[in-house]
Amino acid sequence: MRIGIPKETRAGETRVAITPDIAKKLLGKGFVLQMEKDAGLAAGFKNEDYAAAGVELVDRATALAADIVTKVRKPDSDEIAAMQEGALFIGHIETCEDDGTLSAMFARNIRPLAMERIPRISRAQSMDALSSQSNIAGYRAVIEAAARYGRFFPLMMTSAGSAKPARVVILGVGVAGLQAIATARRLGGDVYAYDLRPETREQIESLGAKPIDLDIGEEGSGEGGYARELSDEAKARQQELLADELAKAHVIVTTALIPCRPAPVLVTEDVVKRMREGSVIVDLAAANGGNCPLTEPDKVVRKHGVILVGHTNYPAMMAGDASSFYAHNIANLLSIMVEESDDGLIFKDFAEDEITAAALIAPES
Ligand SMILES: NC(=O)c1ccc[n+]([C@@H]2O[C@H](COP(=O)([O-])OP(=O)(O)OC[C@H]3O[C@@H](n4cnc5c(N)ncnc54)[C@H](O)[C@@H]3O)[C@@H](O)[C@H]2O)c1
Fold first, then answer.
1. Is 63 within 8 Å of 4 (Cβ atoms)?
2. Which residue in the list 77, 78, 123, 125 is annotated as catalytic?
3. Dihedral-angle region of residue 145 (phi above 0 means left; psi in -120 to 50 means alpha; beta otherwise)
4. What sign does the dihedral 273-169-128-313 (CA atoms) show?
5. Residue ranges in the chain whose pLDDT is less than 70
6. What does this protein do (predicted)?
7. Mean pLDDT for the chain?
8. Is 239 one of the annotated active-site residues of the chain?
9. Could you give the angle at which helices 319-337 and 129-148 cross, rounded to 10 degrees?
């Protein structure tokens, strides 16, 4: 069974789906790996390292003609046209937006397996690419904030005077938020955090941060560990109650999102106006409209004296580790998808495992 690894084509995408270490493991399991030459370079993995692991370095057309094609991003129309009928594609398919990718794949009988659909259950943790990449995003977001904030994060007492610690607020305490709290704490910030789901309180405290409690009059926990969308009144109340806490912050990192919904507005323009000059807001939801309406996707702007960071691909800024984690996720997923037979590796019935059943997108779903 051949796995093809074409080079990513999306602007700014530096990750690669398979790293040399993981390639070696997959080869040991009986797969044949064909990678487009230079596909790993932007992530820091050289052709020689893949070749030494046993990967065949091929041209783009050959990588795209494999039985399984794996990428970080969804395939573009040229890639879909170059894949063979009946092939399996594994990657982030970004199924919330319908831009015709899925119908183009179905028209060529290509089976899409969406990494973002891996359920957040214990058995699937090692395959959960949304989490592995969000963890990196949470870390990198805080590093970005610290680099742009013109003051210290920790309390500094020196012979030339002392500096107070930065007051950092993290909004949304999912995977990215938890890592953002941990990173901001490691840097010595005075960290506060807020999430709609009351169960996050204990997690916030266990990381040494202070929970922000708001009574918005509605229960925030929804299905599958995600938040529930609030009524318009509760949203307004949330903004109003958060405002005083946020206006006091020097650094805000926002990560609040419910999958496939526009990002909730948590930091209003009014709040930005009240923040101290030189404060920083890193908005991880920039690609989905932003938790702050002043954020501009893929730009760093200064408004009302506040620096707003709207990068939309933090994992690509840490492409070595991000690729390594992603490749682990892919290999763990592949391990439940195939079994050995007299004719070599064959696919199992994807409908029989709740993980593959959830990730595989059928034409009618
Ligand atoms: N910019 C990037 O490079 C990048 C990379 C990875 C993830 N992300 C984004 O980071 C965000 C977080 O990702 P994640 O994997 O941690 O998601 P997650 O689902 O684990 O966490 C999101 C959290 O937001 C909370 N939330 C939702 N609505 C809220 C509201 N109105 N008020 C307060 N909290 C609310 C949820 O309860 C949840 O805990 C998402 O927007 C994701 O798209 C961005």
1. yes
2. 125
3. alpha
4. positive
5. 365
6. The transhydrogenation between NADH and NADP is coupled to respiration and ATP hydrolysis and functions as a proton pump across the membrane.
7. 96
8. no
9. 170
Structure-block tokens of residue 137:
């995003």
pLDDT in tens, 192-241: 999 999 999 999 999 999 999 998 888 777 777 778 888 899 999 999 99
Residue 128 falls in the annotated catalytic set: yes
Q: Which residues' Cβ are closer than 6 Å to ligand 1? A: 130, 133-134, 137, 171-177, 194-197, 226-227, 255-258, 264, 266, 284-285, 288, 311-315
DSSP, collapsed to helix, strand or coil, labels residue 210 as: strand
Which tokens go with 128? 């959960």
- Write the pLDDT tens digit of every residue in 331-344: 999 999 999 999 89
Domain limits, the chain? 2-117+319-359, 134-316
Classify 217 in phi/psi space as left (phi over 0), alpha (psi -120 to 50) or beta.
left
Q: What is the CATH number of domain 2-117+319-359?
A: 3.40.50.720
The whole-angstrom separation of Cα 362 and Cα 290 is 31
Q: Is 25 exposed, middle or buried (0-12, 13-18, 19+ CB in 10 A)?
A: middle
